[in-house]
Amino acid sequence: MRSPVRRKMAVPFKLIFIVAFFALSAIVMWLWNELMPAITHVTTISYWQAAGLLILSRILFGGMPFGRGGRDRFRNGPPAHIREKLMNMTDEERAQFKEQWKERCRDMRGRR
What we know:
By secondary structure, the chain is mostly helical. It has helices at 4-40, 47-61, 80-87, 91-108. It starts with a helix and ends with a helix.
């Protein structure tokens, strides 16, 4: 359960996030409409198209890392409890572990 202080702070942060999103959408629209027609001869975009473009860029490129992103999760290596478990494995457990992960990765790529 969240503490009362964290609950009170959540509302302003959500409000700041929403305001920042709308401001960034306006900036994207302005930059697009100023630069892109002159450079590439494309048409101008509306505010909502700029917001969609901002969301699409977030999905495709993973920018604007608010919170804890998946790609930064193990930047400093695995957490201590996982590292300890891996270090205490015997050679045969380690080989079995590697083989299981090879199978999982093969399955994800659609190969069997």
